[in-house]
Design brief:
The complex is a heterodimer of chains A (503) and B (351). Chain A has 503 residues and is of the alpha/beta class. Chain A has 3 domains: 183 residues, Rossmann fold, CATH 3.40.50.300; 172 residues, 3-Layer(aba) Sandwich (Rossmann fold); 77 residues, no CATH class. Chain A is 33% helix and 24% strand. The radius of gyration of chain A is 24 Å and the shape is globular. Chain B has one domain: ABC transporter involved in vitamin B12 uptake, BtuC (Orthogonal Bundle). The radius of gyration of chain B is 24 Å and the shape is globular. Chain B is 69% helix and 0% strand. In chain B, helix 12 packs across helix 13. The chains are: A alpha/beta (503), B mainly alpha (351). The interface between A and B is large, with 78 and 47 residues.
């Protein structure tokens, strides 16, 4: 924030093209010591390209890049690290079989006499780092099995032990639960107070406002603005990101609530979830909230039949579903948009047309035979319905942007004409424009009489979209709260406290 | 209440081209066409420079030689497209030919003996499939095990002896050619099976599921594909086709031995991979696979006619295989360089 001090890192008029595609056009970014700077923009706005230039992965085409007033030129990531730039990615890649200590010192182990690795010194430094960060992670345990949040902490510890001056966090909170986010923020603030410069990239505005002091907005590969956080608000940031007004983030339309379409009774899988019972009615959007790891996705997967369950029943419009048979569930009109779009929702290396028709292939046959022509015809209808942006129907779906990929998943399941739609994290990792489009679409579907069960870790989404909020904690349903009485406080309370204490 | 985004231009009617490339490029510029073209080129060159190559007799023997590989590759291709592999097929050829031999020795008619051999193949394939899907072992490990197991049973049943007496009518039928064309009569059976496999793999929802499993098993399961059942069926088919090749082997060479077709699994896999099936699964077509088998057959026959020894033939096949795999990777790399990021999701630029 202190305009007088020398910026830790300063990029001016940086451009980068890949062939004919301009990824970055005159980008600007100035990070000051003792400041947490937010970088926001839609997917494809150029944030990642900018980060990769700072990390030494890409070379810029034009512009200047200075650190602490001196021009720098990174040809490799090692050079960037040596100069004090550290990047913490959304999902860190640690060596799973090595201990926490060994991971922190990978590639630069301190050596004692005769070139032996000085284990005692390594361990002592890690213990000190963890104390400084205020976290309790056993330095001797293997990295395998650590939560993503803990893995990020280890990456941060690594960065500090390298004495990083600029710490870049690329969507670090996307896979974290509320408590974990708070811990990460505490660590980030303590690093700021040590005089380091931090860059925080996030799609979640509440986090940006809670943590950062300055915000830089990018759009279409260009710099839009840099403002102190105190001088702006969510609406104006969104306007700058999208280049137009998004009047309502959660365009929930009240729909007529009809008969129960999804009924879950006493669903139990020991150690995963216990005695889960609820109903979702026609026209209703029910949110399943809770912390990451509370068992929400597991319940959804068991209902759909991808995972087994031991006892309990699931019925769709009065008809019981057999356990463990997704094809039978689909036949009764159940659709599941899974949590992991790239691994579960889509065959990421297959074409747009093939993905859109993945769930309806059986109905496209004539005399048992299917042709690419029939698939394309069906896919075209749904691509148009959802306004999927793709060059052609035979484009590989992995080349589309995150938002468009999500539209393809939605198209795939809407094509199956479901009665009940389960959506796990409907808007994770997609930009604000597409986000509101997905929400509008969900609202529309509820209006058409679908029963929608939405799993979401984003409280504003839960509160904005749901007619009813179910909360899970450690495998149990701990609360059912109506739209009218649902608040961030009572949902979070139910997610973190046991059932008896609620209400 | 109904609209959320105020300034978006009213519904642009999007049109969706089915294909990103013009038709001629799609049809001509792919792995399968490259192999078919290479096959055609080798055929033309061999016909011109190798004496006695372009004759019905030579062509007939060429096809007789590669018939077992043709049969097995039809089933190996889908197995590999689904991301698995079956290394036990060579041993199954041996076990099946021993089964036919023993049954025939006991006086069982060949037709019945053949059905028994096919059943043995189906059971062998089922064992592979169940071990792989139910216990969750990798196909490579399981079928290396059954490669040894099935071969062991085959050799154990017959020892080092061979059965060389078969019903004359059947051996004559297997060795028969269609009129004066030189084409073996068994090719009729092959063409029928080829048609069946093409339909199964390229024109049914089941076949689409096979490709989906090979690209992403998770995503296939989440789309309602019964991945376990599909993979078991493919292994059963693989066992049955290997058994069919074993019946042919016994009758054509009039010799049922435990060590028949040792190492044939590698010839089959080489031809399938040469034909454009990805070793990682998810990609391939039977047109390329058949061309791959034929290419290896034509090359070895032509070189054999000009007295090139079989080790040189192996070297050439090996080089071709490595080159084809490299070419695939290079093509992928070139394509990945050409893929352009989708422009951001904003159409209307602010003024």
């Amino acid at each position: 924030m202190d305009g007088q001090s020398t910026p830790t890192l300063e990029l001016r008029d940086v451009s980068k093209s890949f062939g004919a595609v301009v990824a970055l056009r005159d980008a600007q970014l100035t990070m000051y010591p003792g400041s947490i700077h937010a970088l926001v923009g839609e997917n494809g706005a150029g944030k990642s390209t900018l980060v990769k230039i700072m990390a030494g992965l890409y070379a810029r085409d034009t512009g200047t890049f200075q650190m602490e007033g001196k021009p720098v030129e990174f040809r490799t990531t090692a050079e960037a690290k040596a100069a004090g730039v550290a990047v913490i990615y959304q999902e860190p890649t640690l060596f799973p079989d090595l201990s926490v200590t060994e991971n922190v010192f990978m590639g630069r182990q301190p050596v004692g006499r005769f070139g032996r690795i000085d284990r005692a010194a390594m361990r002592a430094e890690v213990v000190e780092l963890m104390t400084r960060l205020g976290v309790a992670i056993d330095p001797d345990r293997p990295a395998e099995g650590l939560s993503i949040a803990d893995q990020q902490i280890i990456e941060i510890a690594k960065a500090i032990s390298l004495d990083a001056k600029a710490l870049i966090m690329d969507e670090p909170t996307a896979a974290l639960s509320g408590v974990e986010v708070e811990r990460l923020f505490a660590v980030a603030r303590s690093l700021r107070d040590e005089g380091r410069a931090l860059l925080f990239i996030s799609h979640r505005f509440d986090e940006v406002f809670a943590l950062c002091d300055t915000v830089t907005v990018m759009r279409d590969g260009s710099y839009v603005s840099t403002t102190p956080i105190a001088d702006t608000d969510v609406a104006s940031i969104v306007r700058m990101m999208v280049g137009r007004d998004v009047t309502e983030l959660f365009p929930k339309v009240a729909a007529e609530i009809g008969r129960p379409l999804l009924e879950v009774t006493g669903l139990t899988q020991p150690g995963v979830f216990q005695d889960i019972s609820f109903q979702v009615h026609s026209g209703e959007i029910v949110a399943l909230a809770g912390l990451v790891g509370a068992g929400r996705s597991e319940v959804a997967r068991a209902i759909f039949g991808v995972d087994p369950y031991q006892t309990g029943t699931v019925t769709i419009d009065g008809k019981a579903l057999p356990a463990g048979k997704p094809s039978a569930s689909m036949k009764q009109g159940l659709a599941l948009v899974p949590e992991d779009r790239r691994k579960q929702g889509l065959v990421i290396d297959a074409t747009v047309a093939s993905n859109i028709t993945d769930a309806i292939r059986g109905t496209l046959t004539r005399g048992g035979l299917i042709t690419t022509g029939a698939e394309n015809a069906a896919a075209r209808v749904w691509a148009r319905q959802l306004e999927v942006k793709t060059a052609s129907l035979d484009a590989v779906v992995g080349t589309l942007s995150g938002g468009n990929q999500q539209k393809v998943v939605l198209a795939k399941w809407l094509a199956a004409n479901p009665k009940v739609l389960i959506i796990d994290e409907p808007t994770r990792g997609i930009d604000v424009g597409t986000k509101s489009e997905v929400h509008r679409r969900m609202s529309e579907l509820a209006g058409m009489g679908l029963a929608i069960l939405m799993i979401s870790s984003e409280l504003p989404e839960v509160l904005g979209m749901a007619d009813r909020v179910l909360v899970m904690r450690e495998g149990h349903l701990t609360a059912a709260i109506d739209r009218a009485s649902a608040t961030a406080e009572n949902v979070m309370f139910a997610a973190t406290h046991s059932g008896e204490e609620v209400q | 209440m109904t609209t959320s985004v105020t300034t978006q231009p009213a519904a642009i009617e999007r049109t969706y081209a089915a294909y990103g490339r013009p038709a001629w490029r799609r049809v001509l510029l792919n792995r399968e066409m490259a192999i078919i073209g290479l096959l055609a080129a080798v055929l033309v060159v061999a016909s011109v420079i190798v004496p006695k190559f372009a004759t019905p007799t030579t062509m007939g023997y060429l096809l007789f030689d590669i018939t077992p590989i043709l049969f097995i590759s039809l089933a190996m291709a889908p197995v590999m497209i689904a991301g698995d592999i079956d290394l036990s097929v060579g041993s199954m050829v041996g076990l099946s030919s021993v089964t036919v031999g023993l049954c025939s020795q006991m006086g069982i008619p060949i037709a019945v003996a053949g059905l028994i051999a096919l059943a043995v193949g189906a059971i062998g394939g089922l064992v592979n499939g169940l071990l792989i899907t139910r216990i969750g072992l990798p196909a490579l490990a399981v079928t290396i095990g059954t490669l040894a197991l099935y071969r062991g049973i085959a050799v154990g049943l017959l020892g080092t002896t061979a059965i060389t007496q078969f019903d004359k009518w059947w051996t004559a039928l297997i060795k028969a050619r269609i009129g004066t064309t030189g084409i073996p009569v068994v090719m009729i059976l092959f063409v029928l099976l080829l048609a069946a496999f093409v339909i199964m793999l390229h024109f049914t929802p089941f076949g689409r599921g096979v490709f989906a499993i090979g690209l992403s098993k998770d995503a296939a399961v989440f789309s309602g594909v019964d991945a376990e059942r599909t993979r078991v069926i493919l292994f059963v088919l693989s066992g049955v086709m290997a058994a069919l090749a074993g019946i042919y082997y016994a009758l054509y060479y009039t010799s049922a031995r435990g060590d028949n077709a040792t190492g044939m699994e590698l010839q089959v896999i080489a031809a399938v991979v040469l034909g454009g099936v990805s070793v990682f699964g998810g990609r391939g077509a039977l047109s390329g696979v058949v061309a791959g088998v034929l290419l290896i057959g034509v090359l070895s026959k032509a070189l054999q006619l000009v007295n090139v020894t079989s080790d040189v033939v192996s070297i050439i096949t090996g080089v071709l295989l490595v080159l084809s795999v490299i070419a695939g990777s290079v093509m992928n790399w070139v394509q990945s360089k050409r893929v352009r990021p989708v422009p951001g999701s904003i159409q209307s630029k602010t003024a």
